[in-house]
Amino acid sequence: MKAFTITTLLLFLIGIINAQDLDSRGAYFSKKEYSGDKIPEYSVSKNDLPIPLMENDKEWIAMYWTCWEIAFNHFKKPPEGSPFVSNILDEAFNSQIFQWDMIFMVMFARYGNHIFPAVNSLDNFYCRQHENGYICREISEETGEDFVFLGERKNTINPPLFSWAEVESFRNTGDMSRFKMVLPVLEKYVEWLNREGDQITADGDQWYNYGRKAANSVHGLYWNTGLGSGMDNTPRGGNGWVDMSCQMVIQYNNLAWMCDVLGDHDKAADFRTKANDIGERINHFCWSEEDGLYYDVDSAGNHVKWKTSGCFWPMLAGISSVKQCDRLVSHLQDTGSFWRQIVFPTLAADQKGYNPKGGYWKGGVWAPTNYMIIKGLEHNGFEDLANRASERYLSGMSCVFENTKTVWENYSPDTCVRGYPARPDFVGWSGIGPVALLIENVLGFRVNAVESELLWRITRTDEHGIRNLRVGDIIVSALCNERENKSDEARISVTASKPLTIVIIKGENRESFKLQTGENEIVIR
To answer: Would you say 296 and 214 are in contact if contact means Cβ atoms under 8 Å apart?
Structure first.
C-alpha cells in the first residue's frame, strides 16, 4: 500500500465523502467485466520493446530504459472488488486514477502496446461515466467513486483529450475495434461538456446539469480552473480558457476522424463543423494581434493576459494561421520567456510570480505541456524547432538523471535540477520525453499503422536507428550509417517482418519505398 500523510488521508476522505453516485454508471460503454489480463514483467519483456540505437547521446538511451522499467513497475490490476474493467498504467501519484495523466501516459506507452495495451487503462474512466455524460477527472481505484478534491466539482473536469489518445494509439496499432466501443462514451461526454455553466453552478446542488461552456458570455467558449486544467496553481482567470477551448476543437476533430474510419461521414462532417466554429471564436476573441499570443478572456471578451504554456494549444488544434504561428514561435524561442535552459516553462520567465526553480505550474517544466507544444510545432511545419526543443528537453532531463538516477514529475526551467516540488520515479507522464520524443523527434520515426507505413525523418549524422519498432503487426528494424555531414548520402538498412512502405525525409528530399519482407538496402542523397 502507498504511504499516506495525515493531510493526504484527510483530503482523501473529504473527497470520497463529497463524491456522489447519483445514477447508473458506464451505460454507454459495452465492456462490463474485468478482463483479467496478466501483468507483464520488465525482465521478460524488455527485448520485445523498441530498441533505440544511437552512437552519440547514449545517456538518453539509459534514461529510455529506466523509464520503461519504472513504467512496468506501475502496471497493475485493479484492487479486489473494484468496479474497474481493465488493468491500469498507474500515474504513480496516489490511490486514484487521473484522466490527464492517463491520457499522456498513453502517448509513450503505445510503443509497448503489444505487451501492455495502455490505452485500455482509459476503460476505467469510460465504465464510470455518469448517465448524463459527465466523467470525473479523478476516480478512486478502490471504490470506483468520483474523488472530488475538497468537495469542489468545478475542479473535476480535466482536458477532454480521450479521443486524441484513442486516435494516437490507433496510429500505432491500426486496430479500429476500439472506436465502435468508445465512440458512444465520447459523444455523450462532449454533449455534457457543451452544457452551459459557470464556477458557481458547477459547485451547486445541481452541478450535474451544468457543463463547461461559459454561460452569460459574449464568446461562448469553454472554461476551466487551475486544478481542472491540470495546471494546478497557474495564475489565470476568465471564463474563456484558450487550452480548454482548443481541447474541445481537438476532441471534435478526432471524433470526426474516428467516424470517418467507421464510415459515418455525415457525423464526421458535423463534428468538424463544430470544431471549426469553436476555432473561429478562439481566433476572434482570444488572439492578441498586439502581443502575438492567445489569451484567456472574461465574460465580456476582454483578455486576461498571462503568458503560460496554455497559450500554445491553438497550434496543436490547427486553428492558427501561418502568421499567427510565426509570432507564437517567436515567443517560444525568446530566451527571456520560454526558451530556457530546460524548455518550456509553464509560466513565462518574464511574468510576475515566475519561479526559476519550478514552483509547480509557475515555471515548472512538465511533460504533457512540452509534448503539446512540440507536436503543435510539428503540425505546423516547424520540424527543426520541434527537434531542437526535444533535444534541449532531453538534455535537461538527462543532466538531472545523471545526478539522481531517475526521472521526475517536473523540472526546473533555469537549472539542471528537478522541479520544486516534484516527485521522483514519475513514469507517470514523464516517460513522454525519454520514450516518445526520443523515438518520434530525436530519431525521427513516425508510425502510421493505418497505412502500413513508417516515416523516417533523418537529421542525425551519427549511426542511429531502432530495432523492434511495431507498425501494427509489422516488426521493423532500421539503421542509418554514420555520416560526416547532414548533406552526405545516407545508407540505410531496413528489416521488416511483412511488406511495408517507408517514407524517408532527408533535408529537402522525400522518397517513398515499397519494402519486401526481410532485409532491404536504401541509399538516399
So the answer is: no
Cell of 451: 497505412
Question: How far is Cα 407 from Cα 422, in angstroms, rounded to an integer?
Answer: 10
Q: What is the pTM of this model?
A: 0.95
> What's the CA gap between 322 and 58, in Å, rounded?
37
- Sign, Cα dihedral of 296, 299, 303, 304: negative
Helix/strand/coil for 142:
coil
Q: How do 500-506 and 453-457 pair as beta strands?
A: parallel
Cross-strand bridge partners of residue 502: 454, 513
- Distance between CA atoms of 308 and 346, rounded to whole angstroms? 5
CA 391 to CA 407: how far, in whole Å? 16
Q: Is the pLDDT of residue 452 over 90?
A: yes
Helix (H, G, I), strand (E, B) or coil at 381: coil
Q: What is the pLDDT of residues 146-194, one digit of tens each?
A: 999 989 999 999 999 999 999 999 999 999 999 999 999 999 999 999 9
The full set of domains in the chain, from first to last, is 6-442 (1.50.10.10), 454-524 (no CATH)
CA-based nearest residue to 503, from 453, 468, 463: 453
Beta-strand runs (E) in 77-172: 88-89, 96-98, 138-140
- Say how many Å lie between the first and final Cα of the chain, rounded: 57
123 and 180 Cβ atoms separated by less than 8 Å = no
Which uninterrupted H or E stretch holds 269? helix 265-286
Cell reading at 182? 468508445
β-pairing, 518-524 with 490-496? Answer: antiparallel
Asked if 393 and 370 count as a contact pair (C-beta separation under 8 A), the reply is yes
Q: Which of 142, 49, 136, 47 is nearest to 88 (CA)?
A: 142
Tell me the β-bridge partners of 408: 424
- List of residues 6+ apart from 167 with CB closer than 8 A: 254, 257, 258
